[in-house]
């Protein structure tokens, strides 16, 4: 399919994509695929006011009925899986299998949210006073602002939106300015679901197309009760304090520097496959990408050699083509950051395998690169930084406690894993003295988390949790209710206050 055919099949008309100051380029070959009109930061107050009006109506709709809208969204996504998945690939460069997987992740979270719409449970709590009962009630929170990154341009929005919608919140979505088309395509899909639903308030979902200033205006806007932001630690460090200053709520999902430990008892065939997928999938541009590998010294040399051989056979190329496993980086900046990190790694004693730019003749305006393995003598400065590119630093360990300490000795805390068949090692890794990350896996890699669990991490990763488990509580406000059904007025703590 041509780029134009992909855009048309995702529901765009030629006219929509022809005017405006934002030039959208595909990382596949660097060509311009659209020009879009952008919002101005001064538009944000009106947008957020409309969202508040939508919220005022939506919060009164019974949650299971709100779930029906999300069920319809899931249905529409099922019908559009191919078209949207291909657009994801065109706009962010991940291979088609992963583009389709991302839409599947949206469908999965819709299903989860539909079930959740009948399970927004509170507690009943024992009161210390006679004739009293206590309970906890969860109410809709308000306007939810979603700031999403280029690498998961649709799934992360949907994790937030599907949950926010069943929780009774309205949504304003500011996608990355690198991936506005997938956001606009999702808005069209959402509108179809809303039309079938019938009486959903208008402006329940609004998309803001624009740069950083629009994001800043959104974050600072008092009408926005919750800001859920995914992106770099640098971005989160700006968002967090601004939201906190106005006593808003934020959910931050920021950088990761994810590790795997391969122990002597590991199933090495499985470990090898897991390392390759986790390290080079999405061309190393997932928050959960494997970036640090700790190999036990008894298997280090042979495993490293097998890994280098496996890397040499990986097909790099156009992500829309069957058989490609590694697509392009999002742009030149990412490629330069990767080359800089590799130069620093060499200076810090590393031996680099791979990592050369490639396919420049076929795609001179794109940024394809061979994934890199770097044999490091120790966890030096460059290894502790997140470089959003396919670089895997490999290090040796002899004692598990030291490997766990090294894995935790970075500022980020998103995802982690161990390959071992020794139950003591496995349990230690996920115990209180084990991994300090939000996600800690045994015998699977750190990436590709399912939607059913809470997703997010500690330290510089920002502490937020999205997606499954009880992450929905972040999208609602908790109210404690004490009800006196007696004829007396006993005070708590046994206080007497007679007059
Ligand atoms: C991200 O990179 O921001 O766990 C999200 C994973 C995906 C989500 C990644 N389910 O790799």
Which keywords apply here?
13 helices, five-stranded parallel beta sheet, globular, binds 2-aminohexanedioic acid, alpha/beta, seven-stranded mixed beta sheet, 499 residues, 23 strands
**pLDDT under 50 segments (min length 5)?**
none
Small-molecule binders: 2-aminohexanedioic acid
Globular, elongated, flat, extended or rod-shaped: what is the shape? globular
Give helix % range: 25-40%
Number of helices: 13
| Percentage beta strand | 15-25%
Order of strands in the sheet with most strands: 12-15-16-11-10-18-19
Please state the average pLDDT score.
Answer: 98
Tell me how many strands there are: 23
Structural class: alpha/beta
Main sheet: strands, sense, barrel = 7 strands, mixed
Whole-angstrom Rg: 24 Å
Distance between the termini: 83 Å
Please tell me about this protein's structure:
The protein is α/β, with parallel strands linked by helices and 499 residues long. The protein contains 13 helices and 23 strands. It has helices spanning 3-9, 44-58, 63-92, 96-116, 155-166, 180-197, 212-220, 233-245, 268-280, 300-312, 332-347, 400-408, 423-429; strands at 22-25, 32-36, 124-125, 132-140, 143-147, 170-174, 205-207, 224-230, 249-253, 258-262, 290-296, 351-354, 357-358, 368-369, 372-375, 391-397, 412-413, 415-419, 439-442, 454-455, 458-459, 466-467, 476-484. The strands form seven sheets. A seven-stranded mixed sheet has the order 12-15-16-11-10-18-19, sandwiched between helices. The chain has a five-stranded parallel sheet with strand order 7-6-5-8-9, with helices on both faces. A three-stranded antiparallel sheet has the order 3-4-23, with no helix packed on it. It starts with a helix and ends in a 15-residue tail after the last strand. Bound molecules: 2-aminohexanedioic acid (UN1). 2-aminohexanedioic acid is lined by residues 105, 151-152, 156, 230, 286-288, 447-449. Residues 105, 151-152, 156, 230, 286-288, 447-449 line the site of 2-aminohexanedioic acid.
């Amino acid at each position: 399919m041509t780029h134009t055919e992909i855009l048309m099949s995702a529901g765009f008309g030629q006219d929509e994509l022809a005017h405006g100051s934002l030039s959208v380029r595909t990382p596949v070959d660097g060509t311009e695929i659209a020009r879009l009109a952008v919002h101005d930061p001064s538009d944000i107050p009106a947008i957020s006011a409309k969202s508040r009006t939508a919220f005022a109506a939506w919060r009164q709709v019974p949650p299971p009925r709100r779930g029906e809208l999300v069920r319809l969204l899931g249905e529409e996504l099922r019908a559009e899986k191919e078209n949207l998945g291909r657009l994801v690939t065109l706009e962010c460069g991940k291979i088609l299998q992963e583009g389709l997987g991302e839409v599947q992740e949206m469908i999965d979270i819709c299903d989860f949210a539909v079930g959740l719409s009948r399970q927004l449970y509170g507690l009943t709590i024992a009161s210390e006073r006679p004739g009293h009962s206590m309970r906890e009630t969860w109410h809709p929170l308000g306007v939810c602002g979603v700031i999403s990154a280029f690498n998961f341009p649709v799934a992360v929005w949907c994790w937030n939106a599907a949950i926010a919608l069943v929780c009774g919140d309205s949504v304003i979505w500011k996608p990355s300015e690198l991936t506005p088309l997938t956001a606009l395509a999702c808005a069209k899909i959402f509108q179809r679901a809303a039309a079938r639903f019938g009486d959903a308030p208008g402006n329940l979902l609004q998309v803001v197309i624009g740069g950083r200033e629009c994001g800043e205006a959104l974050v600072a806007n008092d009408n926005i009760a919750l800001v859920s932001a995914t992106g770099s630690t640098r971005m989160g460090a700006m968002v967090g304090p601004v939201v906190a200053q106005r006593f808003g709520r934020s959910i931050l999902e920021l950088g990761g520097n994810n590790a795997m430990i391969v122990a002597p008892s590991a199933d090495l065939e499985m470990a090898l496959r897991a390392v390759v997928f986790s390290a080079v999938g999405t061309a190393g541009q997932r928050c959960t990408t494997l970036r640090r590998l700790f190999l036990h010294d008894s298997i280090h040399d042979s495993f490293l050699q097998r890994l280098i051989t496996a890397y040499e056979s990986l097909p790099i190329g156009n992500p829309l083509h069957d058989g490609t496993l590694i697509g392009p980086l999002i742009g030149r900046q990412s490629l330069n950051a990767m080359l800089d990190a590799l130069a620093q790694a060499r200076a810090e004693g590393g031996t680099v395998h791979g990592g050369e730019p490639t396919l420049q003749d076929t795609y001179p305006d794109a940024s394809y690169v061979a994934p890199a393995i770097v044999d490091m003598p120790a966890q030096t400065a460059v290894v502790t930084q997140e470089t959003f590119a396919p670089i895997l630093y490999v290090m040796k360990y002899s004692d598990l406690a030291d490997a766990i300490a090294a894995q935790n000795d970075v500022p980020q805390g998103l995802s982690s894993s161990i390959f071992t068949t020794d139950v003591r090692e496995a349990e230690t890794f996920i115990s209180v003295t084990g991994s300090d990350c939000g996600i800690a896996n045994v015998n699977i890699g750190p990436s590709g988390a399912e939607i059913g669990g809470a997703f997010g991490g500690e330290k510089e990763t920002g502490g937020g949790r999205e997606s499954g488990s009880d992450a929905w509580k972040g999208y609602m406000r908790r109210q404690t209710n004490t009800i006196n059904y007696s004829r007396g007025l006993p005070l708590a703590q046994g206080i007497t206050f007679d007059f």
